[in-house]
Amino acid sequence: MVLLLLPFWGSTRDNDIKSIQWAINDAPPFHIIDGPYQGLGICDVLIDAVHRALPDVRRSVWLMPHPRISAALEEGIGLCFPCMIYKGTHDKVAFYSMPTHMYQPHHVITTAEKATMLSQKFGEPLQFAKLIADNTLRFGYPAGRRYSVLQTLLEQYPPFLARPGSGGAIAIMQMIKADRLDYTLDYPIVANYFQQSGKGHLTALPLHENADQHVAGAVGCARTSWGNAVLNKINSVMPQVRQDPAFLQVLTLWAGADAVNYLKLNQQFLAQPEYNQSELPASKPE
After folding, report:
1. Cα–Cα distance measured from residue 97 to residue 51, given in angstroms and rounded to the nearest whole number
2. How far apart are the first and last CA of the chain?
3. Are strands 19-24 and 58-63 parallel, antiparallel or unpaired?
4. Sheet harboring 184-186: ordered strands across?
5. Matching SUPFAM superfamilies, A to Z (predicted)?
6. Measuring CA to CA, which residue among 74, 14, 24, 11 is closest to residue 280?
7. Which of the four pLDDT bands, split at 50, 70 and 90, describes residue 167?
8. Element containing residue 263 per DSSP (H, E)
9. How far, in Å, CA of 128 to CA of 248, rounded?
């Protein structure tokens, strides 16, 4: 089936929003499109939470590769992606809701055996600047990923294996388990998914460079009048979305053994004043 995606440039008010067009991609545990945990990705359940809080708003969901989602947002297509990293008003691609939840900082993901070696060699927490400079160790990551404060360190060294296509993060972890790579960078929840889905056990090691730099997740929509109106509507029910029991349950599921501490940190993180004020203008006709 071919989808004809057209930009939405019309004027829209909050009360005009009767449905939301969502885009998702194959990226567990953010979105899980098959298997025993189908529909239990963090951002799958976030969509459900939004519509429980807005029962009169219909939904439609398109499964799209992540590069196509990014391109559609840049083109002003009338859709929303529930799994954005919050960037406030500075981003040129999307408007953002208030943060919906918190991610722990990126960790090094490796086998238990290599984790012991890396900790002995590069410290606890790991000094990533020294690790990435060691060309005897094989690093890989999903193509298209960016790593915040760690990105400038990565760009100082020759290209590493970038795994293209859907399911890239899981494919990279399978290569680590098979000893074809030594480590990757990712959120601890991805390693937890890898283990809980029966694919194998890997270890997540915190890093010196991004310690305590937690990452805010948010809903992102096209930078149009429609996208602005959708997000104003979502922001109006954000307290209910954040405390949705099923949403908290799936956050707990993928937080793994650290679930109790994670939920406490998540609540403290979301309580910050700057995350409880919308940066969007009130929706009104242009």
Report:
1. 15
2. 35
3. parallel
4. 184-186, 107-110, 203-205
5. Periplasmic binding protein-like II
6. 14
7. confident
8. helix 259-270
9. 31
The per-residue pLDDT for range 88-130, each reduced to its tens digit, is 877 788 999 999 999 999 999 999 999 999 999 999 999 999 9
DSSP states of 70-124:
HHHHHTTBS-EEEEEEP-GGG-SSEEEPSP-EEEPPPEEEE-HHHHHHHHHHHTT
Task: Write out 32-74 in H/E/C secondary structure.
Answer: CCCCCCCCCCHHHHHHHHHHHHCCCCEEEEEECCHHHHHHHHH
From 229, 279, 226, 233, select the one nearest 72 (Cα to Cα).
Answer: 226
Q: Tokens standing for 232?
A: 């104003």
Name the token pair of 5.
């995606």
Q: How far apart are CA 154 and CA 132, in angstroms?
A: 7
- Note the pLDDT tens digit of each residue in 168-207: 889 999 999 999 999 999 999 999 999 999 999 999 999 9
> Please, which residues have CB within 8 angstroms of residue 40's CB and are 6 or more apart in sequence?
29, 32, 250, 253
What pTM was computed for the model? 0.90
Cβ atoms of 262 and 104 within 8 Å: the answer is: yes
Between CA 151 and CA 41 the distance in angstroms is: 26
* Domains, in order of start, for the chain: 14-103+215-275 (3.40.190.10), 107-205 (3.40.190.10)
